Amino acid sequence: MEQTLDNIVKKNLKPEDLKQFNRIHYGREDHCELKLKESTIKKCHEANIEVAGYYFTANREQIRDPRYVKVGVIQHSIVQPTDKPLSEQRAAILKKITNVIDIAAAEGVQILCLQEMWYMPFFLCTREKDKWAEFAESATEGPVFNFLSPIAKKYQMVLISSILENDNGTWWNTAVVINENGQYMGKHRKNHIPSVGSFSETSYYAPGNLGHTVFNTKYAKIAINICYGRHQALNWLMFGLNGAEIVFNPAATISEFGESFWGIEARCAAVANSYFTCSINRVGTEVFPVIKDGRKEFITRSYYGSSYITAPNGHRTPSLSRVRDGLIISVLDLNLCRQMKDQWGFNMTSRLDMYAEKLSQKKET
Ligand SMILES: NC(=O)NCCC(=O)O
């Protein structure tokens, strides 16, 4: 059994203690597991993909019907070594992901989010640009959009695809939303760009210029907070103010950068803003041969996966594996968003006026 925090706890606690742990830590005594099809389990086993299903309920209301939506998140490693031709690298990932999307579709997933820059190695640690430029593409007619669009249509699935966008020669870190008819619905550009340790993304693209768009899809009002933006409470807040019911956080992050707060930030955001959050991180080790001072060196980075989903009441799923490809399928009752607002009064008691006044006075130091 793999050493995730959940597995360590499960293995070492007596059933009664485990119940207590789950009640206090996760907010519920069991994980409300969703029964998945035999075929899903078989296909995932064959492809060495961890698969887990959960559901989040809300109180029954007298007037409003439950508003169920089934979401999926996929974490995965790259397939080919990073020195192979770019087209081969991308084709191998697309093939792998097609299989996982097919599995998710057979389970009736309606909204599915992929990890940050899912179709390529996360080369942004190398500081190299030219070598990778062909991975940067148009949000509306690039190879990745053209690949996903028919899939979205075939399965009437909303797809969130994090890409390296090339918009008339300018690069952006962008999440594209494709609607259930396979049409481009819009995009969000990463607002906060890391320049920390080997995450030197500021040399590639500028902070996003599209604000905090919420996409009113057929199934839910969704938004995307891309990776490093999860460290900013106000970034999460703005998506909530704009009406998001689910905020996806496609990421690429490694242990050295706060694995201990990975499980906290999106969960806090879900509680503070009364929406669901879906956190998706890469897995696997990516090795980049680079030339430094005339010598060949290797940059190696390992991503710790651990994708999970949180409800507005703070209940969350266990994490996926730290090392294996994985798929979480979860049923969410969106009624829980308003119920939490009503129960806790977070909206009613917020003091945005007070913050706005101070923020408008704030000068850059
Ligand atoms: N991809 C990305 O923004 N990574 C930054 C490191 C982190 O926020 O964990």
Number of helices: 9
Largest sheet: 7 strands, mixed
The total beta strand count reads 16
Secondary-structure element order, N to C: HHHEEHEHEEEEEEEHEHEEEEEHH
Characterise the protein shown here:
This protein has helices at 5-12, 15-26, 38-46, 86-106, 143-155, 233-241, 259-273, 335-344, 352-361, and strands at 50-56, 68-75, 111-113, 158-167, 170-178, 184-189, 195-196, 199-200, 215-216, 221-224, 246-251, 276-281, 283-292, 295-304, 308-310, 326-333. With 365 residues, it is an alpha/beta fold. The chain has two domains: 1-30, no CATH class; 32-361, Nitrilase/N-carbamoyl-D-aminoacid amidohydrolase (4-Layer Sandwich). It has a seven-stranded mixed beta sheet, sandwiched between helices. β7 and β8 form a beta hairpin. The longest helix has 21 residues, at 86-106. The radius of gyration is 20 Å and the shape is globular. Residues 116, 194, 199, 227-228, 251-253, 257-258 line the site of N-(aminocarbonyl)-beta-alanine. One of its GO terms (biological process) is beta-alanine biosynthetic process via 3-ureidopropionate. This is CN hydrolase domain-containing protein. Keywords: Hydrolase. Residues 69-334 form the CN hydrolase domain.
Please describe the topology of this protein.
Blueprint lengths: L4 H8 L2 H12 L11 H9 L3 E7 L11 E8 L10 H21 L4 E3 L29 H13 L2 E10 L2 E9 L5 E6 L5 E2 L2 E2 L14 E2 L4 E4 L8 H9 L4 E6 L7 H15 L2 E6 L1 E10 L2 E10 L3 E3 L15 E8 L1 H10 L7 H10 L4
Parallel strand pairs: 1-16, 2-3, 3-4, 10-11, 11-12
Antiparallel strand pairs: 2-16, 4-5, 5-6, 7-8, 9-10, 12-15, 13-14
Bound molecules: N-(aminocarbonyl)-beta-alanine.
N-(aminocarbonyl)-beta-alanine binds next to loops.
Keywords: Hydrolase
Protein name: CN hydrolase domain-containing protein
InterPro entries: Aliph_Amidase/BUP (IPR050345), C-N_Hydrolase (IPR003010), C-N_Hydrolase_sf (IPR036526)
